[in-house]
Design brief:
The structure is a homodimer.
Chain A: H1 12-20, H2 25-32, H3 39-45, H4 51-63, E1 67-71, E2 78-82, H5 84-87, H6 90-100, H7 114-124, E3 134-140, E4 143-150, E5 153-158, E6 166-170, H8 172-180, H9 185-190, E7 195-198, H10 200-210
Parallel strand pairs in A: 3-6
Antiparallel strand pairs in A: 1-2, 3-4, 4-5, 6-7
Helix pairs in contact in A: 7-8
The structure holds a DNA duplex (20 and 20 nucleotides).
Pfam families (chains A, B): HxlR (PF01638)
GO molecular function (chains A, B): DNA binding
Protein name (chains A, B): HxlR family transcriptional regulator
Amino acid sequence: MPTSRSYWDSCGIARALDVVGERWALLIVRELLLTPQRFSELRQALPNVSSNVLADRLRELENRGVIRHGPADAEGPKVYELTEWGRKLEPIVRALGTWGIDAPQPPEPAALSASSVLIYLEDAARPDPTAPPTVCRLELGGRVWTVRLADGRLQVQAGETTTADASLRAEPKTLSTLLADPSALEKKCDDGSITVVGDLSAIRRLLYAGSGR
Amino acid sequence: MPTSRSYWDSCGIARALDVVGERWALLIVRELLLTPQRFSELRQALPNVSSNVLADRLRELENRGVIRHGPADAEGPKVYELTEWGRKLEPIVRALGTWGIDAPQPPEPAALSASSVLIYLEDAARPDPTAPPTVCRLELGGRVWTVRLADGRLQVQAGETTTADASLRAEPKTLSTLLADPSALEKKCDDGSITVVGDLSAIRRLLYAGSGR
DNA sequence: CCGCATCCGTCGGGATACTG
DNA sequence: CAGTATCCCGACGGATGCGG
């Protein structure tokens, strides 16, 4: 059964927290920022939330108008996705993530979902505006993503693209490590922890952009 | 004893929530946005948090570097105040409040602190840029505040000012009601639920600015 | 297998009383 | 005034069940 407690405070901040302040709620929103996801995908992205709590939160967030539950497109599997109101949380959640960079790392073992790394990548990226436009295909956490570098911006999209300069397959944590130290790219290629197809320098541009140059 | 659970997730968002995601934490931050406050003032502003939980949260937030506990200035009473890092939450908390405006109001009885109304006032205010600069003194929740209207902006400061066009004493909820319907100003004056001294039209400008014109 | 529901143990949080 | 001590309940977390 969903949580029903409230702060009993008419302040907008308190009312916002009545909606998305319960445990795991904002992490679910984080997961849905880039793409709708299924229950099992959310479980994989948030391995530390128990299934009953996840079900509770999803129901709550749906009842309160933050997310929606239904087939995104014709007769696909049922996915959870943000409503228009829920999407307005995006800049807030991203800002919270930027703020949290300065918070201490949790001790191992720590989870790291594909969405987390990609959101970080978008927000931290400072691509060279003079560099050539680049499109990379990413295989991350069992899904395919498209990353576009152009006009001094980095954008992530869920799904395949028709034309990519290169493709990279990695674990989210490995990609995170590479963003902290892009110079380790070749080594990671050699030891097989990542797989690169196509123009390696495109991947290199992505990593250096995502590391803030 | 403070909470020690974690999301065990290296994502910045999760780490931020490890710090300020526990219940009441962000409402404490809200209370400290405008001015440092003492324990008893926080209790009054957050009447629904029990003293032990408040003490726990304050200790946690202090340990994690969000707030500081000490005499703000020479030998005053001990107050809680935001650290530099904690202050970086300000735009996030304000944005959350703006988002929460569209969330349902909690059933009565609902609390409403002076800080809450004043933060809302600052964020919702759209003062007429052509109107004359105005300074109002506010007595709200047992404290004195200074509100300045100038250059199409509204700014709130804690404490007295030397020169004010008018002074208004009210309960936070009453002020909130007036911001929703500024035309009720005279009535509230008459029935004694507020007290105005000085230029009534200055208060009127404040209310209309705070109501988004 | 996916999408939950149920059961149960634990712990965070709420209310009250009390202390330096 | 500024918290602490205590008790209790509900939210949370883990495991398992179970229908589609």
